[in-house]
Amino acid sequence: MNKKVLMLGLAVCLSSIITGCSNSQRDEVTTLNKSYDIEKQKNIELEIEKAVLNEKLESINKRQEKQVAIITTLIRDSASGVDIYPIYSADVDNYINNYNKEIDFYIAIPKEDSLKSKLDTIAKSLSETYFGNLPIKVLEFDDKKIVTIDLEETSEMSINTSIQKNSSWATGFFQGSTGGTITTIRLIESFLQKDYQGEWVEGIRFSYKGQPVDFEHTPELSKVIYRR
């Protein structure tokens, strides 16, 4: 009888040891999986940051190339047959929550280009420099020389949703009070060219994918904006 009790006791102890080892191994595997997931998320975040920085660097390089080309043209021939147009951004003073328009860079456009072509050039420059190559389409003029400018999303889908979010009007450039204000200033001031003395549009209206722009942080884009 004592022998049977002893054997039963040994079996229980052995079972406890095996169970304890199994639980310990599972805990270790769980910890390793959590560490792996954390490192994987860090790598994803680093890739996102790298993509954003590369996009900013590419934008800066493009702007620098344009400025060099303009300066070269002006030095070569002051009557070169081109007009110089400023592209505007916003000087953000976070201390007083003030957003003043400022000239960010210049583009050169041939004088003989049509007004529509000039607006197309401005649209292309804005898209490449500030808005991740999102489509900006200059549409029809009405009889009062008000031009409609349609802001569209790209048809290309990014495999990284975070990068895609940053390159979207709806989820990126229209969002946030600061971001929305900067987007508004860049679009309105660059298209209106209020200081240009030649023939120009009387006003502009924006649409988003063919519909009125209806976003909380870009209320000015829902109106007709006049030049004077």
Low-pLDDT segments, ≥5 res = 157-163
Rg of Cα set? 30 Å
| Ends apart, CA distance between termini | 108 Å
Arithmetic mean of pLDDT? 80
Q: Indicate the structural class.
A: alpha+beta
Order of helices and strands: HEEHEEHHHEEE
Strand content: 15-25%
The percent of residues in helical segments reads 40-55%
Question: How many extended strands?
Answer: 7
Q: Biggest sheet, open or closed, and with what strands and sense? A: 5 strands, mixed
User: How many helices does DSSP assign?
Assistant: 5
Shape: elongated
Can you walk me through this structure?
The chain is of the alpha+beta class and 228 residues long. It has a domain at 81-226. It has 5 helices and 7 strands. It has helices at residues 2-76, 115-130, 161-166, 169-173, 177-192, and strands spanning 82-93, 98-110, 136-141, 146-151, 203-208, 211-212, 224-226. Helix 2 (115-130) packs antiparallel against helix 5 (177-192). The longest helix is centred in the first third of the chain and has 75 residues, at 2-76. It starts with a helix and ends with a strand. The model is unreliable at 157-163 (pLDDT under 50).
